[in-house]
Write a structure and sequence with these properties.
Elements: E1 27-30, E2 53-55, E3 60-62, E4 100-105, E5 110-114, H1 119-125
Length: about 140
């Protein structure tokens, strides 16, 4: 759940020089609709856009950090009556836009990425320095 191969992560000190796969090929930030809401859990634990790590003696969750593990929009919303989304909140990106979500790349551009993007390409674009070529377009 705590990925450190992207650009932004807990206590990250990543420099643009560390993005050796090229700034046009690497995600900097992406949309997420997978945040626990205040009334979803009996304990009231929830997250918002300015939340950070939830850590205590039993578990830690990187609430506002995500990795490209699961396909875009692969899970149902985190909402009242939905199973606890702490299981997947940091494992995927998603939005309420039909068919995909927006990503800001390290070169400053913003791209709409289709939820049907090849999973290998999607995962490669989330890693700043794996040295693997990106084989295809964002769609």
């Amino acid at each position: 759940m705590f990925f450190q191969n992207g650009v932004l992560y807990a206590n990250s000190k990543t420099r643009f020089a560390d993005v050796t796969d090229g700034t046009t090929n690497v995600f900097l930030v992406g949309e997420s609709r997978y945040m626990p809401v205040p009334k979803m859990r009996a304990d009231g634990i929830h997250a918002g856009w300015a939340s950070s790590l939830k850590a205590d003696s039993t578990f830690a969750v990187p609430l506002t950090f995500a990795g490209a593990v699961l396909q875009i929009n692969a899970q149902k919303e985190c909402a009242v009556g939905v199973a606890d989304c702490f299981n997947f909140v940091s494992r995927l990106f998603g939005s309420r836009h039909p068919g995909g979500c927006q990503f800001g790349l390290c070169d400053g551009s913003v791209q709409f990425v289709s939820q049907s993007i090849d999973i290998t390409i999607y995962r490669q674009m989330a890693v700043r320095n794996d040295g693997l070529p990106i084989g295809g377009s964002l769609e």
